[in-house]
């Protein structure tokens, strides 16, 4: 398909220009980025220098809270293996914490109502040995809000999730991460501690073009909250996995679950899923930002465009990587919009399902059923916006909603004694071929006189 072709030279030039402007205006010692299109690293850009030389796609940068997305993948693996349920309280799998009544889902979505940070000293600039026990990460009073009611970002919450992963696997968090995510995906340059070549973290003076080195410590228990280092090449590969899935690590269905908002954030029309931020911008990006002293990072997916962007800078503050990524997506989608998939007929006709297609009525409201590939059905409204969903077939002859209003609900054909389909039952709602026909099986019955003027 055309989207697999290399980017146009004019598109590359526009991407390079936007990156150069971000590095210059943001006063970053170095800034690097990569663009994935349909699973392939289609463009990389580098500006500035690292140790006197230009950075490369193999130069490590600290990625901060993007680490949380890796943690979420590990937790979803445990869920998919049946070792935990997202509704389980933490205490069921990691006994003895002071937040044991909070659920795994609440920790993943930052709705557990626990503190944003550890007790002093500032964990990002101190060695993890300061907190030799997990209790030191949480402190004496970590429970500050009612759980499940509000989005409240919590770094210690992901430290607890990292500890939970290690406890259930019987290995250190680093070992589990390497064996279950980094090695299967080929992320050979992603690590908890830096490995050369890597950028040094800098603070840039706010009123002068001067630099101050930032420290980089092993955060200990807090490592799952933001310690990973990675490269453009590695994080682009991880981004491609987040777009398409890899059954060796996590299925596409589970990744889609991660990408769905659980809680609204303070950002306009934004939300937070399971270890992933959902932006409310023009391109509906899904990903995560990251910052640690001396570093900024961003990873975002434009799922409907098959695009992913990653960007790193070795500066504590300055460049707005979120705005940069949005603009890079805009450059590509404007210059080289993705072609729609070519239409193709179904491989075969199913007479029984074909008979279900066409208009149906919920009371007097008109709907239509469409037949999709693999015996899937789609319920659409006619002439107005309303409750629409797609349905997947089940072994018992029913269908289950996979999106929209009827997600998780059951759609069934109801037959009379002769085997003729009389109506559809959708979560107790009755869909009939005619609006309130006198012979329809409608709860409460239909007025015998029928429709009148």
TrEMBL record:
Domain of life: Bacteria
InterPro entries on file: AmpC-like, Beta-lactam-related, Beta-lactam/transpept-like, DUF7586
Residues annotated as signal peptide: none
Beta-lactamase-related domain residues: 16-321
DUF7586 domain ranges (all copies): 350-433
Pfam families: Beta-lactamase, DUF7586
Entry-linked Gene3D superfamilies: DD-peptidase/beta-lactamase superfamily
PANTHER family: D-ALANYL-D-ALANINE CARBOXYPEPTIDASE, D-ALANYL-D-ALANINE-CARBOXYPEPTIDASE/ENDOPEPTIDASE AMPH
Protein name: CubicO group peptidase (Beta-lactamase class C family)
Classification of source organism: Bacteria, Bacillati, Actinomycetota, Actinomycetes, Propionibacteriales
